[in-house]
Amino acid sequence: MYGEVPIEIPVPTAGWNVSQPRHRLSPQQLFDGRNMLVGLDGILSPRRGYDHLGPQPAQGLTDDLRLVAGIGFTDTAGGQQAVVASLRQWWALQSSVWVSIASGLGSDKDTASRFVVFGSVNNKSALYGVNGHIHDELRRWLVGDLLSTTLPGVSLAADDLDVIAERLVMVNVAEASSPFTNRVRWSAVVDGATWPTLAFNNLAGIGNLVAVRATSRTAGVIYGETGAYIMQGVAGDDAGAFVFDRIEGVTVGPISPNALISVGGVHFYLGTDLHVWRCDGQNAEIVSGSIDAAIQVGAGATSLATSPSTPTIPPDLSAPNAVQRPVWLYDGTQQRLWLFVAFQGQADAQGALVLNLRTHTWEVPQLFPEAVTCAFPVIEQLAPTWNQPGNHGTTVLTAGVDASDTTLHVGSTAGFPPRGTISIGAEYITYRILSPTTLSFCRRGMFYTLAAPHTAGNVVTSEVTWDDADLLWPNWNAIPDMNQPSLYLGTVNGFVCRFGLALTDPGRLAIPYSAEWGLISMPNPTQVLQINTGDVFLRPVTGDNARLQVSALDTPYPPVSDVPVEIIDQALVGDDHSTWLFRRESGTEPANLQPGYYLLARLSGNSSVGGVQYAGAYLYGDVLSRDERLNGVSGLDD
């Protein structure tokens, strides 16, 4: 009889854990892996990809590619705004085009830039930004204005800023180019352009100030290198607008303003001690305990070459480039925090550590083909209208055209339907033939628009008409709402990207993924299991395959000469149920019936259309006693 004893390989809902030996992990924990996440539905699947958004800011400016900050917000008119900062400029997304609203800035790649929205001026939302007390003075952009400006009579620069008690608050400031690294400075009430002379406090005992974050409308935390203060708004004049109290429970501060994020008034930050901390404004606790053994590898605590207790791709948080460059991102839809950091061998943050806020566990490391240098949530207005149902994507003209040309040369037609409608400026154009870089048999000046010449670099948008709306949405319920939350990434190469919706990474790169469970053992140490049958539970996905490997080990740490015996190497076809069930016959594959005291399970593949959706697996086999194991008795001999 086959499979009398079941061994489960469950969905790893307890996350990634390298704080214990592999054989001491629970079956719900992963020891190693990459690019896999447990979703709200309890399914383990590869991460989604990201894609570059249409025309990009800073392209062609060789000294200005790196994007160092970004923000999305709703303006006073209800419109959605997105602004990013490169090393030399600010860029605002206006009508699908990035427009420079500040130039000549002096940022550097190791100093954080920060944005915050504070009040309005003449019914225009006001965006304020700083790029370090050693660089430029505080700037303000009013939505709708052509350019941002410095503030008359305000000679202030700072490392960080936030809004607390209806005042703009900055820390680690320079006033008239004189640095005050332990100073907190605040504006007048609801007025970011007025900074009363006595509206400041010099905080002692916590080193240089690093960051400020609100915990509520009237309170916030000031973080220094070695501690923190709570600041609470009180009634009174400008000079006495806040009271400050030392938070005794905070002894370690964040390594930079961008290494800190606020979620519902609770702060998470990467500390100067290379632990991840959680602070609620009164106390702080380490939340990275289960992965600290991996994080500390970067500090030289252990060697990957000699230690079997560390994962294969640890972060490298001790490198000089790691000091100011970690970036947080909060995914409210999936309740996850992403901390983009440099992994070993990377010059910038091409990896991410992911904290699942629902389960309070860490996911396995995530790897990206490009370094992420800023990240922020936005609200995108995606709902169709009768005149503008939507679009399939954008590209740019690679050659100019006149008003009569019927063939258009573009950068890429990826995502465009085989025939359809495009717009360039105010002109609508239909096309009948599509190639990777051309649109042919075009009819110009459609839908009561005028045919016009266009120059290379102009944006080409693949429009959706209601006649072909079924190519974009399978049914009425799939049509998006007016506003939809999205996640944007900024890269070291100057690209703004939409994250979490694409099935692949830019260039249609498949996403490699793997998950490696801790060592599985029999509950009774006097017994071993001889696997002969398996049953994998997947949600069908057409076009993607995976591989399940299970090996037998006699000891958790075998010597190099004692290679684990592979007993299962099963190709799982995403939509072929017959491959999810397998049996190993006695005699035909004797090596695959090798029993072991420990089992090592690994799931891997390359995701191009969403990857496998793993819901668990069971392995079945026969129990052998230690004597039977040592005497070479097979559970199938009967």
Provide a compact summary of the structure.
With 638 residues, the chain is mainly beta. The termini are close together.
How confident overall, as mean pLDDT?
Answer: 84
**SS content category:** mainly beta
N-to-C CA distance? 9 Å
What characterizes the major β-sheet?
6 strands, antiparallel
| Overall outline | flat
Percent strand equals 35-45%
Low-confidence stretches: 298-314, 316-324, 587-592
Helix content: under 10%
Instruction: Round the Cα radius of gyration to an integer and report it.
Output: 28 Å
Beta-strand segment tally? 49
So how many helices?
2
Task: Describe the protein.
This protein has 638 residues and is mainly β. Helices cover 1% and strands 44% of the residues. The protein has two helices and 49 strands. The strands form twelve sheets. Strands 2, 42, 43, 45, 46 and 48 form a six-stranded antiparallel beta sheet that branches. The longest helix is centred in the C-terminal third of the chain and has 5 residues, at 626-630. The protein is flat.
